[in-house]
Design a protein that fits this description.
Number of strands: 24
Oligomer: single chain
Strand order of the largest sheet: 8-7-18-19-20-17-23
C-alpha cells in the first residue's frame, strides 16, 4: 500500500520520498524493510562507505573478516527474520559449542551446549551448585517469559488518557497481576538487584558466578555489585538461536551478515540505500520535519524523517535547538550514555593454545573468559570509575573462525575480544578529564593482550594484526555517543516508557513527522531489531489514522 498522504513522485533531484531514514545500522534497515514492503518509497542514508553501524564485517587485514564491533548473534528477533526472509538473503547463525573460564590456579570451568554436560561440569566444582543450576535456569526463564512479549510492543504513556495507552496499561497490569503476589514481588526485586546478590542466592563457586555475570555487565557502565545488573542479564538472556532461548551464536561471515541480509531484503522490496551520505541537519520547516541536509549541502525532502542515530546525536547534534522544546532538550542532555567497553580484533597465524584445556576441547568454539571471581570483575569496574582502563580487564573472548572458516584463511584464525571496562574519557589529574590518545589506545590493547598471554603462552607470537577500539573509535566511526554500545544505558530508569525520555517513548519525536528507530528507544540495545520493527509499526499505524487494534493492523499491513 502506498502512502495515502500524497502520491509517490518519480525519482529526480527534487523528488519527495515517503520516508528518509538516517543511518544504515540494523535497526534502521529493519524499519526501512517494513516500510518498503508496505509500499512506501524509502531512502536510507548512511555516512560511512559501509553499512551496518555496529553490526558490520570488514576486511582490515588481507584474508581476514573482522566482526569489528558487535560480535555475537542472540537477541535478533526470530519474528523479524521470518517476516523479512533473511535466511533466503544469506543469514545463517551458527550456535556456540562450548566455553570456558580460566582460573588463576591453572584450572578451568567449562560450559557446553548440552544441559546435562553443563550440570556434570558444575558438579565437578560444586555438587551444591549443580543441584541449584536447574532452579536458577527455571527462575530466570520465568522472568524471561514475562518480559519477552513486551519487546515487540510499544510502551504506553502512563500520563496519557488516550484509549490505546489506557488499554496497554491495562494489559501490563493484567500480566503483572497474573503472576501472583509472591512471584510479582520476586520480579520487582529481581529487576532492581545486583547480579552478584542474585547469584549468591543460587551458587557458591566463585568461578561459576563470574561466568554468570558476563551478560549482566556487558556494555553497561555498572559493576556486578551494582543494583540493576540482574535486569541487564535478563536483557541478554531473551534472545534465541534455532529456538533455544538464551543461546548465543555467530553469524556466518561475521555480524555484517545480519546487515547485508537486511540490505538485500530492503533492496528487493524496492528500497534505496545511499552510502557516503553523512547528514548534517534534520530539516524542519513550518514546524514539521521535511527531510535532511547532507554535509555537502544537498537537501533530501521526505514526508517523514526517521532517525536511527542515538537520541543525543539526533537532537543535540543534528537539529536546531530552537525547533525543540527546552524541557525535552534538558531530558536528552541527562540521558545516560556512558561508554564502558573496548574491543580488540586480532588476526592470528594459528590457533592459540590454552594449556588448561584438554586437546580437542569444544570450549574453544565458544566464549572464553579470564576473570574467575565476581570480586575481580568488580575491581575492573573500580578502574572505570577512577577514569582509567582496567589493568586486569574483564574479557569476553571468542575465536569465531573455529566454527566459521569463512572468517580467516586456512590454518589461521580471527579472535574477537570484547573488554570491560574502558571509560569514554580518561582521568586527568584530581578533577579533570581528557580525551583518549593513540598512545592510550595502544596501552589499553597491550593490557588485554598481556592478559591473554598469561593463559595462552606464546599467544603474542601468533599475532599478525590487531585492531584496537576504545569508546573514542566507537563514537567516531559508528556514531555511538561516548562509545555506548546500547545507544544509552539499560538502567531501570531508562526502560519502557522512560526510554529515551518520558513522553517520547513511542518512537515519535517532539516535531511532527520526526521518528526514532534506534536502540535509544524501547526495548534497548543489542542486535535485536525490535526497536526498528516497533517504530515501523507506529509509523504505519499513524498512516492509518491511529488504528490501534493489532488484528486490524495485520490485515492492513500483512508484513506486521
Amino acid at each position: 500500500m502506498k502512502d495515502t498522504a500524497a502520491p509517490s513522485t518519480p525519482r529526480s533531484s527534487n523528488c519527495i520520498w515517503d520516508a528518509v531514514i538516517v543511518g544504515a545500522g540494523h535497526n534502521g534497515l529493519v524499519t526501512a524493510n517494513y516500510l518498503a514492503r508496505s509500499g512506501l518509497d524509502v531512502l536510507v542514508v548512511e555516512k560511512n562507505d559501509w553499512i551496518g553501524g555496529a553490526a558490520v564485517s570488514r576486511e582490515l587485514y588481507p584474508g581476514f573478516t573482522y566482526s569489528n564491533c558487535s560480535y555475537v548473534c542472540s537477541l535478533f528477533r526470530p519474528e523479524i527474520m521470518r517476516d523479512l526472509d533473511l535466511p533466503a538473503h544469506g543469514l545463517q547463525v551458527l550456535p556456540y559449542e562450548g566455553g570456558a573460564v580460566f582460573q588463576r590456579d591453572g584450572g578451568y570451568l567449562a560450559t557446553y551446549r548440552d544441559h546435562e554436560a553443563n550440570r556434570r561440569e558444575i558438579a565437578r566444582h560444586s555438587p551444591r551448585d549443580a543441584e541449584n543450576y536447574d532452579r536458577y535456569a527455571r527462575d530466570l526463564m520465568r522472568h524471561c517469559r514475562f518480559i519477552r512479549p513486551l519487546l515487540m510492543r510499544t510502551p504506553p504513556d502512563p500520563a496519557s488518557f488516550k484509549p490505546r495507552d489506557l488499554s496497554e496499561m491495562a494489559y501490563l497490569a493484567r500480566q503483572f497481576l497474573a503472576l501472583g503476589a509472591d512471584e510479582a514481588a520476586d520480579m520487582v526485586r529481581f529487576w532492581t538487584m545486583s547480579i552478584s546478590d542474585y547469584l549468591d542466592e543460587y551458587f557458591e563457586n566463585d568461578t561459576l558466578k563470574a561466568y554468570m555475570t558476563v551478560a549482566a555487565i556487558t556494555g553497561t557502565a555498572l559493576g556486578p555489585m551494582s543494583p540493576g545488573t540482574a535486569y541487564v542479564l535478563l536483557h541478554h538472556y531473551m534472545g534465541d538461536v534455532d529456538g533455544n532461548i538464551g543461546a548465543w551464536g555467530y553469524a556466518r561471515g561475521g555480524m555484517g551478515a545480519v546487515s547485508q541480509a537486511l540490505a538485500a531484503s530492503f533492496r528487493g522490496a524496492g528500497g534505496t540505500l545511499r552510502e557516503n551520505a553523512p547528514v548534517a541537519r534534520i530539516l524542519v520547516r513550518s514546524g514539521r520535519a521535511e527531510g535532511v541536509v547532507l554535509e555537502d549541502g544537498e537537501e533530501i525532502l521526505a514526508r517523514r524523517v526517521i532517525s536511527n542515530m542515538d537520541v543525543k546525536r539526533t537532537f543535540l547534534n543534528c537539529m536546531d535547538p530552537t525547533d525543540l522544546p527546552e524541557a525535552f532538550l534538558g531530558r536528552v542532555r541527562s540521558f545516560k550514555s556512558r561508554g564502558s567497553s573496548g574491543k580488540l580484533n586480532i588476526a592470528l597465524d594459528g590457533a592459540p593454545e590454552f594449556p588448561a584445556l584438554p586437546d580437542g576441547s569444544p570450549c574453544l568454539r565458544g566464549d572464553l573468559h579470564f576473570t574467575d571471581s565476581v570480586e575481580r570483575a568488580e575491581r575492573a569496574y573500580d578502574d572505570w570509575k577512577a577514569g582509567r582502563w582496567s589493568a586486569d580487564p574483564f574479557q569476553d573472548t571468542m575465536i569465531p573462525s573455529m566454527i566459521d572458516p569463512t572468517m580467516a584463511p586456512p590454518g589461521k584464525h580471527f579472535m574477537s575480544c570484547f573488554v570491560q571496562y574502558c571509560p569514554p574519557k580518561l582521568r586527568n589529574g584530581a578533577d579533570g578529564e581528557r580525551d583518549w590518545t593513540d598512545n592510550d589506545r595502544d596501552a589499553f590493547g597491550k593490557a588485554v593482550i598481556d592478559q591473554i598471554e598469561d593463559y595462552a603462552p606464546g599467544f603474542k607470537q601468533r599475532i599478525l594484526h590487531v585492531e584496537v577500539r576504545t569508546p573514542r573509535e566507537l563514537e567516531a566511526e559508528v556514531g555511538l555517543t561516548d562509545g555506548n554500545i546500547f545507544q544509552g544505558e539499560l538502567t531501570f530508569d531508562q526502560l519502557l516508557f522512560n526510554r529515551p525520555v518520558p513522553g517520547y517513548a513511542q518512537y515519535r519525536g517532539p516535531v511532527p513527522d520526526l521518528w526514532m528507530c534506534g536502540s535509544s528507544t524501547h526495548p534497548g540495545g543489542g542486535v535485536m531489531g525490535a526497536p526498528g520493527r516497533n517504530a515501523a509499526a507506529e509509523i504505519l499505524r499513524s498512516m492509518r489514522g491511529g488504528v490501534g487494534n493489532r488484528a486490524e493492523m495485520r490485515d492492513a499491513y500483512p508484513v506486521l
